Amino acid sequence: MHGKDKTGTIHLKEAMAYAHNKNHKKTISEPLMNIVYGRNPVLELLKAGKRTVNKIMIAQTARGTAVSEIIDLARSKGIAVHNVPPEKLDKYSENSQGVAAEVSPMEYIEVEDLIASAKKEANPLLVILDGIEDPHNLGAIIRNCVAFGAHGVIIPKWRAAGVTETAAKASAGAIEHIPVSRVVNTNQTIELLKKHGFWIAGAENGGELLDNAKLPFPLAVIIGSEGAGIHNLTKKNCDFLISIPQKNTISSLNASCASAVILYEISKNK
Description:
CATH 3.30.1330.30; six-stranded parallel β-sheet; 9 helices
């Protein structure tokens, strides 16, 4: 499994890897670490400067402008750069693009701090995710949040994807540029947001069409999973529902596509 847990986070456990040869005579011990892989994710990681980077690993065969930029930026920050055989990076991902970074874990922000930070903006916009279990979907939505000017993301702690390195790769490094809060109870968080003056909009089929809606700020938009949508209790706690105008040839868009359309429409009103 190359040290991947069920969430997709890459952990190389200390004294873990009883990586045996065919005769089970040799073991390899690796320290605990987190790995970010891929050219854009590593580049954005270095640009953001939020996490401690222990070292950068570059495949000996890796070439290109992005690789050169990563090497130059890492060296300017005093981060060690190691040229390694390509197969060394294969244990982290088959699609590492010849680049990986050993980093400190991603830190979540307290929801109270996230709210306070967002309220300093002109038209505060937060995105709440409800039941997004696929880390690739989570990463894509976070990328949309950064692209269309959201000020933070709130995700549930239970029955939902967390910010794993898989999600970081899917976000193409955008995760390094937006605060994320992880909460135990989404509905209690909604009540907290309301106390701070936020309007709560649920993205759900049958809601007011976005091209007709006049959206108030501060605003928190809830995006549910493609199949189940927003949980019933969470939907009841919304101030209003919004939906995407679309033809009836398909039932719904997936969560990442829907979030792109919704956030684009909201960005036009900000």
